[in-house]
Amino acid sequence: MKKVVLVLLVFTALSCSSSDSGNVIPTLPDALSIDGVTVGIQNKGLTYCYDNYFEFVVSSTNPQRTVTITFDKYGNFISANIYKFDQYSENYPYFSSHYFDFEMTPINLSEGKCVIDFSGTVYENKYDINSAPITISGHFTLQSPLPAPGGEFLYHKTLYANVDGKDWFSPNKITRSNDSGYYNCYYVCDDEYRLVFNVNGAITPTGLINFTASTIHDCIKVEKFNIATLSYEPWDTQGSFIFTERYEPFQGGYYVDGSFSLTARNPLNPAEVVHFNDGVFKALDL
Question: Looking at the 3D structure of the chain, how many domains does it have?
Fold first, then answer.
């Protein structure tokens, strides 16, 4: 199975050590292309958004467009879009690393500098890869901003797990659906897996909850994206989670803190197994 693009996440500083971390590695000039054509760069900026991610915005000339790339501080790609007036296109949100290539390389630990490279396709309808496409690519050297004192958000959404030795982060909920008073809350990273929390923020109890593949409510399920059918397929999932705290920051909604661990198995190929270990969540929006 061949990927359209391969995501490369590089987290270690290139040739940096405690003795030379102040040395800047030479980098290429900033560049931006739209539909294969190099365009002029009018301005660029990197904004600190929440605990874990940044929003890079660059404006082009001839044609005038605004490109936004969102990624977390660990180098995980979150989203990409291009905008002009009423024309807005965005990357396909499911298994995004298969359709959009993003690489972040730290180049100067002491000054917080990094290089980002990206290339991929955004679509007029982000849920339809057959809708009108625009290809974008770029190379930029950035200075990572730090949050201003007191400028952080009150509720920092975090969802993390170690997935068979790899860090797995989900920046936010994709969608939510009602299931007989419970809600299926869907969370994705940039890989092929999706976590589905089936809970009720108002009544799911705090404390340890165990679940099996046959559990309907108060459980977490794993689904894997199938690029042939462009859909997620449920896997048999068992494990446990703990709600350590539940609070209601806004009327009609709940945030929860807790932890989880689970094992999921492909029902069509039982030898294919994935483990989500050391899972933690904070201010999970249910």
Answer: 2
